[in-house]
Amino acid sequence: MARLWPFRCCRRASAAAPIITTFAGNGLAPTLPLPGNVPAATSAEASVGVAVAPNGTVYIGSLGTRRIGLTGFVSTIDPNHTCGGFNFAVDRLGNFYCASTTNHRIFKIAPGATTSQVIAGTGTAGYSGDGGSALAAKLNTPAATAIDSRGRLYIADRVNACVRRITVAGNIETVAGVCTVPRSVVNNLLSQYTPDGSSARGSALA
User: Fold this and answer.
1) Does the predicted TM-score (pTM) go above 0.85?
2) What HEC string does 99-127 produce?
3) CB–CB of 83/115 below 8 Å?
């Protein structure tokens, strides 16, 4: 779990015994530029967000995302604060994905890499691209990402008020929400409860 101000640390609860320990964060607010590498996770600055890869590598959010290896050594993988501190997910292969709200894009960082690649979004806010390459699609202030067991990436396309999905082939589609209507219409729909069992594509999302 990540603890916010004033603690600024990440803590771990043991499954074998009711014991909690701090494994990352030194209680100090993160500042830029972040140090490149830190020997001990508890001496690193931490802020918000945490994700764990299948091999046990831990990612913590700060002004730039940090990666904690199995030895406890910390490295910075997002020194330019491309993604923010908490909008990320990790798939079963250890690939790291994050939503950049200001760039209207989704980035990916491969295991062991320190540079990111764009996998969705043109950098211009908007809504377009369903059925085609995610790289040619427009997003509007994407807020979060999630991965399913089949390797498909879900995006909370916040201002568009919908959920988009990137297939394993790299194409994008809308799976929930009513992105194609004006925001004023979405706000009106939000005042009406959509019954369970309704189509996700026709349901208004906040």
Assistant:
1) no
2) EECCCCEEEEECCCCCCCEEEECCCCCCC
3) no
Q: What is the DSSP string of 42-65?
A: GGS---S-EEE-TTS-EEE-SSS-
Q: pLDDT for 84-126, tens place per residue?
A: 656 788 898 889 898 888 899 999 988 877 778 899 999 999 9
Q: Which of 144, 122, 120 is nearest to 61 (CA)?
A: 144
2 within 8 A of 48, measured Cβ to Cβ:
yes
- Classify residue 62 as exposed, middle or buried by CB count within 10 Å of its CB (0-12, 13-18, 19+): buried
At 69, is the secondary structure helix, strand, or coil? coil
User: pLDDT, tens digit, for every residue of 38-74?
Assistant: 655 555 555 567 777 888 777 776 656 767 766 667 7
Q: Residue 145: name the closest of 45, 59, 75 by CA.
A: 59
User: What is the dihedral sign for C-alpha 130, 175, 156, 117?
Assistant: negative
The pLDDT value recorded for residue 115 is 78
Burial of 1 (0-12, 13-18, 19+ CB in 10 A): exposed
- Average model confidence (pLDDT) for the chain? 76
Query: What does the DSSP 8-state code read for residue 171?
Result: B
Which of 115, 79, 120, 68 lies closest to 99, judged by CA?
120
6 upstream amide cis, omega within 30 of 0: yes
